[in-house]
Amino acid sequence: MEIIENALKEGRTALSEYESKVLLASYQIPVTREMLVGTSDELISATNEIGYPVVIKACSPEISHKTEKGLIRIDIRNDDEALQAYDDITAGMSGSKGDVLVQEMVKGKRELVIGLIRDPQFGPCVMFGLGGIFTEILKDVSFRLAPLEERDALEMMGEIKAHKILDAVRGMEPADRGTLAEMLINVGKIGLENDAIKEIDINPVIISGSRPIAADALVVLQSAT
Which domains does the chain possess? Predict the structure, then answer.
């Protein structure tokens, strides 16, 4: 894929969040509506097109831990807040190459993680589990070797300890397991069809109503063999 080829030619080991989501979307994986901006005028144009509230983030392949570095602002509700967030984030990027990403604010109390690692022996392995801040703390995940069938994906959902989070709970709709299964299957396809991809981390996948949406993503690259 051209995005991957260009990144490798530039000597990069990762795609930016925006590039990662373009790749995911090309495999029919639902992602947030978002726009890259490089000036304050472009910022206001983007916020008006997407509609408040929005999330504003640094977007650079050189920056992977945006939250820890204070490079994300959420629930931005007007132009003044957007311009202040833009100034803060561009100042905090400290000369890193990249732009600023404006994306829709996806609301949902349930967060999942979908990922892929390329095992040296077995090849692409797909991961599913509890996402957000709990991913590294609880390590509640399930794995399958790609390629996946729908049965495999549904089994993965049932294997995590927190599987009831996908049910109708506390007034929330049941998560759309069919779409989640397609996302898992298609992440496996991405790994099988792109040897240069070493890892994929889609975290969080927010359940908005019943619909899962990839709110953040990172694709790690390796030189194609």
Answer: 2-30+108-221 (3.30.470.20), 34-104 (3.30.1490.20)
Length of the chain: 225
pLDDT in tens, 132-171: 887 888 899 999 999 999 999 999 999 999 999 999 988 9
Lowest mean pLDDT among 15-24, 57-66, 123-132: 57-66
Rounded CA-CA distance 207/151 in Å is 21
Q: For 46-73, give the DSSP string.
A: HHHHH-SSEEEEEE-TT---TTTTT-EE
φ, ψ dihedrals at 30, nearest 5°? -65, 130
| pLDDT of 64 | 64
Nearest residue to 207 via CA among 116, 112, 134 = 112
* Global model pTM greater than 0.85: yes
Single-letter amino acid, residue 158:
G
The token duo for 52 is 């408040």
Q: Judge contact between 200 and 187, C-beta under 8 A.
A: yes
Residue pair 53/75 in contact (Cβ under 8 Å)? The answer is: yes
H or E segment to which residue 45 belongs? helix 40-50
Task: Please tell me the number of Cα atoms within 13 Å of 33 on its side-chain side.
Answer: 12
The percentage of residues in the chain with a pLDDT greater than 70, rounded to a whole number, is: 97
User: Which residues, 6+ apart, have CB-to-CB distance to 129 below 8 Å?
Assistant: 112, 113, 135, 139, 140, 141, 142, 160
